[in-house]
Amino acid sequence: MNENWIAPSILSANFAKLGEEVDNVLKAGADVVHFDVMDNHFVPNLTIGPLVCEALRKHGVTAPIDVHLMIEPVDRIIPDFAKAGASYITFHPEASIHVDRTLQLIHDCGCKAGLVFNPSTPLHYLDYVMDKIDMILLMSVNPGFGGQSFIPSALPKLREVRKRIDDSGLNIRLEIDGGVKVDNIREIKAAGADTFVAGSAIFSQPDYKAVIDAMRSELAKAE
Fold it and tell me: Disulfide engineering: 218 pairs with which of 34, 122, 186, 199, CB 3.0-4.6 Å?
């Protein structure tokens, strides 16, 4: 399995000093910067676009930027995020008319590609595209807002996706997003995740390093 990555969601950061917030959370031990892109159409909220991604790169952020697109239609914006410095671009299959083509577009733009599954979205979208995927993201809340509680049905779904990845022999990261906290991250890891998005659990605390260290400690117990 891949090494464990902690990916703070900047949705919960202080946007008035975003560059500083990202610097601080990376210094505190985070691995990846998670971008939640919402369009007030596919999900009921409006967040950030490629300009913010580009600004962070110009600010000096070198860590991987993991862009989760909750927008429809999705293809139009992918080249913009790639140009702005995204490392991973993940999207919801419901937001693409041609999932295979969208995955190919992300790769053609030089980024790693992934699919995102809402709590009630079936996994059959994976059936014919596993060889084109670098990351699978399972939502453990309904997308649109930060600070929601973890939906327990995500755990058996994680186990099922972990089996699919292991059976495929492919190097695919398995990411979880929604309600991830110190007190449930070990259970989530045990179900198969290796990439953990946490927003309010980190950014709502005064000491980012203390939270991330506590998460790492819990992850080590799940090995």
Answer: 186
Give the whole-angstrom CA distance, residue 19 versus residue 183. 28
Sheet containing strand 195-198, edge to edge, reads 5-8, 195-198, 173-177, 135-139, 112-117, 88-91, 65-70, 33-38
Q: Per the structure, how many domains does the chain have?
A: 1
**CATH number for the domain harbouring residue 35:** 3.20.20.70
Residue whose token pair is 């295979």 = 100
The two tokens of residue 89 are: 């671009």
Question: Model confidence over 110-150: pLDDT tens digits?
Answer: 999 999 999 999 999 999 999 999 999 999 998 877 778 99
d(CA 195, CA 49): 23
Q: Domain of residue 196: give its range.
A: 5-221
Instruction: Compute the Cα dihedral for 208, 27, 193, 39 and give only its sign.
Output: positive
Catalytic residue list: 36, 177
- For 138-195, the pLDDT digits (tens) are 999 988 777 789 999 999 999 999 999 999 999 999 999 999 999 999 999 999 999 9
